[in-house]
Amino acid sequence: xxxxxxxxxxxxxxxxxxxxxxxxxxxxxxxxxxxxxxxxxxxxxxxxxxxxxxxxxxxxxxxxxxxxxxxxxxxxxxxxxxxxxxxxxxxxxxxxxxxxxxxxxxxxxxxxxxxxxxxxxxxxxxxxxxxxxxxxxxxxxxxxxxxxxxxxxxxxxxxxxxxxxxxxxxxxxxxxxxxxxxxxxxxxxxxxxxxxxxxxxxxxxxxxxxxxxxxxxxxxxxxxxxxxxxxxxxxxxxxxxxxxxxxxxxxxxxxxxxxxxxxxxxxxxxxxxxxxxxxxxxxxxxxxxxxxxxxxxxxxxxxxxx
Length: 306
What we know:
Blueprint: E1 3-14, E2 17-28, E3 32-36, H1 43-50, E4 58-63, H2 68-76, E5 79-82, H3 94-104, H4 109-122, H5 138-149, E6 156-160, H6 168-183, E7 187-192, H7 195-201, E8 204-209, E9 212-217, H8 219-226, E10 230-235, E11 253-257, E12 260-265, H9 268-277, E13 284-289, H10 292-300
Parallel strand pairs: 3-7, 3-8, 5-6, 6-7
Antiparallel strand pairs: 1-2, 1-4, 8-9, 10-12, 10-13, 11-12
Helix pairs in contact: 3-4, 5-6, 8-10
């Protein structure tokens, strides 16, 4: 399978705190692989070890067949990294940011200029080539950070929460660029706590909670294996929800959340009709398909955004 990243028993400790608790991961060439989980799940700590900027506490890690403990510089030269924060030089133009970053990798200046033009076009920033970064929108800065991560034509692109803080339109623009990279055969490794992002981009993913992997597979496999086909969301006025016993036989599983009740069932329409027949009177009824957030709720007892 030509694994580019191989981890066995990978562990990261900070004093007595265990951020990553002995996980096993394989990422193969050309796939988009995701780490899904809430803040504090261990995703970023794992990415920092893969990116050779944080030492492994214990376990085995190989990136591009090399050991980060002894071959960190060689590995980093072949990685592209899009961190959570943009860390751009705001007093320089978009083109200057890319050219200077390319020089850090030892690329000839002529090649840096050529590469900057290619990447500005790829990220739809050509018209902003001479604009200072300080004058760009948040979405443009994020696309420039992605362009910068691609300057050295990396074997692996690491993306840590690539669309956090962006509005929906900007998020979809970034997703489109990442999808095009995947089509070109670039290996993507990303962390996210957005279920729709993971479903859109990832071929395979692991669900993390408390530093451990609680499930692994493709988005479709995870939903099929850990949830029902549909979910009925019932929203009630404050303090007006009936007791959970009123819903006990309406689904495979019932989750009571603040001001809403979730019914997990393979026939959402039938369950919704039965709710009305019983006179339970929700203010809002929504029938939807199961998602990765439902999977996470089933596996851990809390949602991705808590």
